[in-house]
Amino acid sequence: MHPLPALGTPRALLLFAATLTLAGCGADGGSQGAETDDDRPDFYYPGRLTETAPETFRARFETSAGDFVVEVNREWSPRGADRFYNLVRSGFYDGQRIYRVVPGFMSQWGLHGDPVATYQWRDRFIDDDPVVVSNTRGRITFATCDVDCRISEIFVNTDDNPELDDQGFSPFGEVVEGMEAVDAFYGEYGDGPPRGEGPYQAQVRAEGNEYLDAEFPELTRIEGAVIEGA
């Protein structure tokens, strides 16, 4: 299983390149157009998001299917916990679509609605954490395609998936409230290519929410995510 397929088709690559050219972005998200650095949220500038997370904390997600709360235990997966903490605090997950829902397996999100924002994170990998706890139902984990290549995509296990433990998927938290909302994420489109005909992740990277809303309008939306008590 590869929850984070590589950017692939020529069409997606061409669209991605065109988007970035029009945006006038530098390597670390600098703008050459009318916008200044202060016009964009911090998640456009990954170098700003390096805080160490508390040892435990909770993140609340508001979605079109209902709210759910993730409790993070940094001891389980410290690098993953830190990355998740910074992404949530910055608003990175706000407005995203839950684009990969495989009933009886997992639900995944983490590609920004603006492909320029996604691009800023293209090489901001974090090293793997050892697997301390199993990928049981409700636990949340970073997607990855290989060794030491976690970035921003995460998934919630909607069943017990112990086979992911041996593949190096290290849970950093678990849903402690609202698992019924997670179970209600829209999953009729199925998995993406090559396993199914659902959203193609390379195309999400290239076109963001514009592609998802046009081709898969029923996807569950993340209205917002916050660190509780922050």
Describe the structure in your own words.
There is one protein chain. The protein has helices at residues 10-23, 78-90, 115-120, 163-166, 179-183, 201-207, 209-215, and strands at residues 56-63, 66-73, 100-102, 106-109, 139-142, 154-157, 171-177, 222-227. Helix content is 24%, strand content 19%. An eight-stranded antiparallel β-sheet has the order 3-4-6-5-7-2-1-8. It starts with 9 loop residues before the first helix and ends with a strand. It has seven helices and eight strands, in the order αββαββαββαβαααβ. The chain has a single domain (10-227), classed as Cyclophilin, CATH 2.40.100. The radius of gyration is 17 Å and the shape is globular. It has 230 residues and is α+β, with helices and mostly antiparallel strands. Strand 3 (100-102) and strand 4 (106-109) form a beta hairpin.
